[in-house]
## 1
Amino acid sequence: MKTIIPHHPLRRAADLDPLLEAIGDARVVLLGEASHGTHEYYTWRASLSKRLIQEKGFNFIAVEGDWPDCFEVNLAVKQQPDGQPSSKLLQNFNRWPTWMWGNWEIAHLVDWLRQHNAQQLTGHKAGFYGLDVYSLWESLEQIMQYAGRKGEAAAQAAQRAYKCFEPYSADPQEYAEAVAFVSEDCEDEVLTMLRALQRRTPTTGTDGLEKEIDFATEQNALVAVNAERYYKAMLRGGGSSWNVRDHHMMETLQRLLDLHGPESKAIVWEHNTHVGDARYTDMVADGMVNVGQLARQELGRENVFIVGFGSYQGSVIAGKSWGAPFEKMTVPEARSNSWEAILHADIGQNALLFSDELRRHDALLDHLNHRAIGVVYRPERERFGNYVPTVVPERYDAFLYLDETRALHPLPTAADEHVPPDLYPWVY
């Protein structure tokens, strides 16, 4: 049958050449995924990220992960080329879902970053950072380690914030429930702490390490401020907590760009639901925004390139309920008339697609069902959910279609007892 959807073959890393050319001089490249547990999404993003760093001078990778854990990775890949094995380092990601960043695919990427950075001069080493907002207690603990170096006012403000949260046993959900219907909360304490840390005199080090630690301390304070808002918004329901989270991730991305200078370039790894422009999905009806939309609006569409990912069938790592042990699950054939089913019927193999070519086909400019698997997944319930109505050629600038995919390979990480609260029936 004659193929009507324009596409390019996708078999090996060299097949990414047209994508590198299309990215051009974009300052920010957002790389999605249709699940948090698919081997090929991680490996193709890694292949593209390596080329962006080597060939286009991108400065860092920022991921949908917690700031404190990711910053440990950042320091390791820049300062510890012969440090503990990457597989051991990544077991610090012990917050459920542990497999998102604690997996062998990321371990291989961390090994590559170490090798790459070992050959780079100071100031040219590629970084690895977390954009997310969940780590309220961990960020407070990190601040307590460093605030004293920034003056007495900062140290006292940090102590007050820490003590305010202490009665809640490091459990953000317990805190949110306790303050939901009273006027007493910790908002003033974390805001005062953030302002105190922002007023400190920056320190500098010959290797840039002190500058990064300064930035990380202030970033942890920003996480604490926005996490406090996030967990309270969570209990109110609706899309407000989602928006707090994605605004925080965009603010963090902009701060990282500022840290690395006016010519800096960033690679972002997040779920399609965060990187694909929300204005071209049904999210807009609920008043929800995301990082892809905010990046285009704040940085200019010409400076942002968004790549979506998806597959027709295969297997995935996920949990059957929030906080449940991970399992390898079968991903059934995509629902009929979905974006993935159309690509399977029309192309039937891995392919790279570009939105400027897809826009020539009016049928592809409709809202099509586009699969989205979260960390919670029940394959037998796919017909009731797991699809986001999407205008694909507008939501993304390019799309990597993988006809059949496999589950990624988690590390044997023991999960922390404090599981973040379940927010939505679909979780990304």
## 2
Amino acid sequence: MSSQEQSGFFISFEGGDGVGKSTQSRLLGEWLREVTGREVVWTREPGGTDLGLVLRQAVLHGDHMDPRTEALLYAADRAHHVASLIRPALSRGDVVITDRYLDSSIAYQAGGRTLAIDEVENLSLWATQGLLPQVTILLDLDPRAGAARLTEAPDRLESAGDEFHQRTRQAFLDRAAQDPGRWVVLDAAASIETIATQIRRAVTDRLGLAAAQPSAAQPAAHPRPTQVG
């Protein structure tokens, strides 16, 4: 199923840790549910399925592993995630919003871990049978500012050091520059309300939601929905 063949909407959020992906994905999903009447599926990588939770524990909180093993585990999680959750939801016509997708593997395992970009990308494209989001929102922020927002003990990737995270940030920016039709790059240092409005406008344009003009009003505060999985 290509993005042109699916009946649902597929949107991914990308960026470093602490940039606000969870908050903005929640706000966007609630708004899209209101303006489109579609069901919204919130999910994440890794950990969007029961198997994904096991793999998430291994890659983020387990023992040290070499970069190739890490890349393969993320690809395995993604293959199962797409087959068991994302594709069925898109076939139903739902909105799927994921906190991270294959672009994170390219940024972290190729950019951060310095594996070959083509190898990491091709691995994920094979795992997902080429499924890409219609819109990818990159919340860009200096990694040091993002780290200062974190409130829990850092995981394996969060502890990888400033140089690693600077390479990862640049990899995200480089990838976004190569495909401006899919990517929306926003300054994550702006206010929650400003970012939410910018995202609504960009999504309206890219998904062709001509009748859904984003409101300039501040998004209401709602409790965070339960993660799918």
## 3
Amino acid sequence: MKIKLVILFFLAVLINQSYSQTLKGILTETPLKGIGDETNLSKKAAKPMTFSYVFSEKKSIQNLISIEKSAIDTTYIEKYGKKYETTSSVSRPTSLAYYKDLETKKYKVVATQEAKDVNIIEKLTKFDWRLINESKTINGYACKKATTTNTAYNSNQSIVAWFTEAIPVNDGPAQYHGLPGFIIQIEINDNTTLTFDKLVFSKENTAIAEPNNSAPELSFSDYSKQSAK
């Protein structure tokens, strides 16, 4: 009985230590193809976005590093053996942060795009993950596969997650979380991948401040109604 108690004590210490550290990394969001008929991406639209990532004390924040201005871009669509020139608007934010508080279940998206601030606050989505008997190595981490459907914020996306049990943090990119390990990569509808690299633990705790800007905090539903006006 004493041996069991000692083992449980050390497990509790290890769990507490994992949450008393800071995890930092770099996340890359890579567009793979467009949606619907517009599957060919121009060079500007296909350019990845890079984010910094910090996790500490059950909170995480993901901040945009790379900044690309919105622009009108030209691409070509091939139909019936002919190429047709088409123009499209490539809209990119100048600032973007994803914030999660796993304890209070708070999720925020704070952004500035085309000189307009956005400040969305929601309850963190609880995903219904299905574990799949597949594995692969991503950036040096042995990962297991899980799938779900993301219906949050008027979405209907097929999600594939690759998570590693080597990192005892139940978090991941953007709003994704809740697997028995850290989500190294997310695949969204075969259109976009979100992949972590350069993940490093440090012993100190890092204070993570909740992001804000000049816009009032709105739910996604209220923001959508306001944008439609």
